Amino acid sequence: LLPARRIVRDRGMELFCAGTHPFAKWSAQKLTDAPRYAELIKRTQWWGRQMLIWGVHVHVGISSAHKVMPIVTSLLNHYPHLLALSSSSPYWEGEDTGYASNRAMMFQQLPTAGLPFHFQTWAQWEGFVHDQKKTGIIDHMNEIRWDIRPSPHLGTVEVRIFDGVSNLRELGALTALTHCLIVDLDRRLDAGENLPTMPPWHVQENKWRAARYGLDAVIILDADSNERLVTEDLDELLNRLEPVAKSLHCNDELAEVAEIYRTGASYQRQRRVAEDSDGDLRAVVDALVGELDI
Predict the structure, then answer these.
(1) Residue 16 is part of which domain span?
(2) What share of the chain is helix, strand, coil (3-state, %, to 5)?
(3) 157: three-class secondary structure by DSSP
């Protein structure tokens, strides 16, 4: 971070990371000069111009293409856990949206963004990409902006659920959790297990609940519609993943996940700062700048 910080400070600015800026106006921002963004705005217009949002993407390598779609579809069961932990966008243009992650709700307005379809084979994915290209919906595969997607050029599953993560400690924790979840699913496939999935309507509802309520969300756990507070389910999940973390040498990072929900996620910290500062969102930005190195 030090080289980047020197560059921005020389220009009278500071660095921070969150899903949204608490009070910036999207209409006042200059669009990045790149053909892909120009084409995005040309197509999506008002919705595309509003995308003053930031997220973190985590790539995990997969050994075989035939594993990718079962892993992507099963990983959706843990969508609300990942979003709730990372939620950092409660404010939009100076207003408290009432959501933990306003970014998640906004980004899905783009035509190729949002939740992935439930495919079980690589051939289904390839057929989908073919249809998208043939009908002119996309020109390049990276224009499929799903919250979890295959990245064939890297040989990875790319998890794009997270809001911008406010500090390095939490970034390490969430990366470790993602890594452990995917490796666990990969190993279960190798053991001959059929990975658990949920109906798309449950997945969609879980996304909304996590975006709205964050770590206070009561989430749907399975196809039988059982429910549980997300933090209670995280306790059990972290215990189950401990052997995986040990094998990946990320025990310490995975253990930090619990600290997020014990001490408060970024959206909760931001609201506390705003409350303590009589609603002054400049104090929220200052707090985000200050915690980036943690």
Answers:
(1) 1-292
(2) 55, 15, 30
(3) strand
3-state secondary structure of 294: coil
CATH number at residue 248: 3.30.590.20
The pLDDT tens digits of the residues spanning 271-282 come to: 999 999 999 999
Q: If you ran DSSP here, which 8-state letter would residue 27 be given?
A: G
**Would you say the C-alpha torsion 25, 29, 32, 38 has a positive or negative sign?**
positive
* Contacts with 256 (C-beta within 8 Å, 6 or more apart), sequence order: 169, 170, 172, 173, 176
Contact 257, 77 (CB under 8 A): no
Closest CA to 72 of 186, 174, 175: 186
Whether residue 219 contacts residue 228, with contact meaning beta carbons closer than 8 Å, is answered with yes
- For the ranges 31-40, 43-52, 126-135, the lowest mean pLDDT is seen at 31-40
Q: 261's torsion region: left (phi>0), alpha (psi -120 to 50) or beta? A: alpha
Taken in order 46, 20, 111, 40, the sign of the CA dihedral is positive
Q: How far apart are CA 2 and CA 293, in angstroms?
A: 10
Residue by residue, DSSP assigns 202-219 as: HHHHHHHHHHHHGGG-EE
Asked if residue 15 has pLDDT above 80, the reply is yes
Cα distance between residue 235 and residue 261, in whole Å: 10
What's the total number of domains in the chain?
A: 1
* pLDDT tens digits along 225-240: 999 999 999 999 999 9
Token couple for 225: 């519609």
